[in-house]
């Protein structure tokens, strides 16, 4: 079970640039050159088009106006005027071409300057992330909404990768921690048996069986949560009343609560008779994990309450305890694999830290959601499972 009653931090290591092996090498013209060539091509195409249109349509129209103005057709004066018109048009278009190219050059350098810094920042951040430096962030302030959105996506990805790396490290650390005790115990007893210090008997056999079962459960839990998160967890969906689900879970957990001296109550409410389409066994596992987690963190004399509420489309199942509570820093990590609070390290009866992760994966597979809230240490915790109502005619 997850026993999120504390926090622990770790720093992602720099794993090197192994992912960069075989990456394509940047080739071709730089951005500024490509921008200038593109704008120059557009300007040149515009000038050429204007020149052709002016050459084809300008002289006939100008000639017609001269005739209408009383100029003698074919005279030297008209020929001179028409030649002057053609020369003026060509000179004007040539000057316009030069000015347009200069403007394109200025715009290119301006745009390139605006793009170069944010693109360089994005490239540097991506390169750092590829080397395992997940704390890297891209800064593109003032670069426009498009690049800002891209930078936000890159930064969000970096944060997610950092979180995943941190979880992976905790996973490896906690798997080793969970396996160390039973493996060391089994090894010590084997040494004792070989040296004749210990004898094989019911007590030794029971100890071996308990530790082997613990290792088997750990392997099963890891396999279950992996399959669930990958969408490969087999489920058989059928109509299921919330009351049947809750009452079965309460009956199953009642003896453990009685032994510890914690009161377990089921409060019937508006959502009690609502039907959901679910896998009875899997949702039963979710309720068992939530109740076990609540019992683990509620001292003797405390109370755990299970209730249900409903909306037009959803039903919620609420498990409330009066136990240790959670800090604001712990709440975001409750459903992470093997996340356990500092207090969990001081008690041998704590769970492996994967029960709530399994619960979340199962609820997600049902199209629902699971959440947790707490008013702080010593104020208890509230876990709520939200599921869509079944369309039962």
CATH level-4 homologous superfamily of the largest domain: Histidine kinase-like ATPase, C-terminal domain
The level-1 CATH class of the largest domain: Alpha Beta
CATH architecture of the largest domain: 2-Layer Sandwich
Sheet bearing the most strands, described? 5 strands, mixed
SS-based structural class? alpha+beta
Please provide a written account of the structure:
By secondary structure, this protein is an alpha+beta fold. It has three domains: 28-143, no CATH class; 169-229; 238-388, 2-Layer Sandwich (Heat Shock Protein 90). The chain has seven helices and seven strands. Strand 6 (369-373) and strand 7 form a beta hairpin. Helix 1 packs antiparallel against helix 2 (76-130), helix 2 runs parallel beside helix 3 and helix 3 (145-195) runs antiparallel to helix 4 (202-229). The longest helix is centred in the first third of the chain and has 55 residues, at 76-130. Residues 1-22 and 342-351 have low confidence and may be disordered.
